[in-house]
Design goal:
two-stranded antiparallel sheet; 182 residues; alpha+beta; elongated; 40% helix; five-stranded antiparallel beta sheet; 5 helices
């Protein structure tokens, strides 16, 4: 069986309050990034002055990507984390699900979180020693067995499933006749 965990991580936490605290501190970052995606979408669609109509277009496109399984990073604000307890080591392994690798890299900068990817479908990365790679294989095999991550762990949606919403956007600056921004 092939294993491919490209956005794997390890979190040095063994209690739900610790995990929730780390995720809670990270959530505003994802919210800001979602707002930036929506702003860019409205600009590209020429709907900065009609946020409500632009947001409906955004929401329709997001819904289609979910229904049809289409990848569309320009509207995809989802960021899910699956935490899989590793009781033997008193920690959790995890997998991030997002279309934005930079968001995952930012997650890895949270206290107690570090990269812990693993795959056996191709060669190991050159920067990871064979012994470390073998340990990762054993760790992932131990916590997953032959089950889906969602069957042995728990999932936290870091994003707001409806958002960002148009009222959360900063007000656009308008120029007066004198040329000053308001």
């Amino acid at each position: 069986m092939s294993t491919r965990i490209y956005q794997g991580f390890l979190i040095e936490a063994n209690s739900l309050p610790e995990i929730q605290s780390t995720v809670g501190a990270f959530r505003p970052y994802i919210h800001r990034k979602g707002i930036q995606l929506l702003q860019r979408f409205l600009q590209n669609a020429g709907m900065v002055d009609n946020r409500a109509k632009g947001w409906r277009l955004w929401a329709d496109l997001r819904e289609k990507t979910v229904q049809k399984g289409i990848r569309e990073p320009s509207v995809d604000t989802e960021f899910r984390l699956v935490f899989i307890p590793d009781t033997e080591q008193q920690r959790c392994l995890g997998i991030a699900y997002t279309e934005h690798y930079s968001w995952f890299r930012h997650w890895l900068r949270q206290p107690g979180v570090r990269e812990y990817r693993y795959w056996n479908s191709t060669d190991r990365p050159s920067g990871i020693p064979r012994k470390t790679w073998t340990r990762r294989e054993q760790d992932w095999d131990r916590v997953l067995g032959h089950k889906a991550p969602s069957m042995v762990g728990f999932t936290i949606d870091v994003h707001d499933s409806l958002g960002p919403l148009p009222y959360q956007l900063p007000r656009p600056r308008r120029r007066t006749k004198s040329g000053l921004a308001t």
